[in-house]
């Protein structure tokens, strides 16, 4: 059950959308909502430190903290109007530590909620990837135009027998149990025939049935690709949520999203819950 969720806040115009999405989910589960705001302090590269006096560095830090005070005050006002149990978690850290700080905080909740990053918003993409692969919990990302009214009555679940998909199913159970319709999509795989995919679908359907979730099995050809096929199916069924494993690999110690994961995050017009 989801009883403790967090939402990423940064003082930008996107905070309102993120908070509205998180508010609706908190209302669904009578959950506590924590807004996490990491206020970044100037962090100069070693080569530049000696070009600033100690007093100049102190002044830059002071201005950053004062800006953080103003942002935090605005966020407190926004949170107080949500009508759910809430708190603002503020951290003043050096810029080089912002991602590590947020990731450590995100591990303490049942669910991380944010808006789907736009293509040119590299920072939010980096944050979403880091939480997905490093927090140990699921990530729920909502397209900005969907946040006003979330409807999870119909869910499309992308399934294959992998650790990532199994994690997504486990994390999504609170949503699956509330849904009226759950379509388990087994999308074409060169290594598995249609019968084998249906067998895998039967296995996960049996597991979900024991949790009180009735599903319909939907073996699909890969067609334009796994990500595109899953998005097409969500549109066809008028689904309000896509559940899938989040795939990726490391390259020089940084995570790189897999093709299907990247495609869904880039193009989805409905909320996406991913587990890794």
Automatic annotation (TrEMBL):
User: Hey, what's the signal peptide range on this chain?
Assistant: none
* Segments forming domain UspA: 224-274
Which InterPro entries does the protein's record reference? Universal_stress_UspA, UspA
Cross-referenced Gene3D superfamilies: 3.40.50.12370
SUPFAM superfamilies on file: Adenine nucleotide alpha hydrolases-like
Q: Where are the transmembrane segments?
A: none
**Similarity section:** Belongs to the universal stress protein A family.
Task: Identify this protein by name.
Answer: UspA domain-containing protein
Q: List the source organism.
A: Martelella endophytica
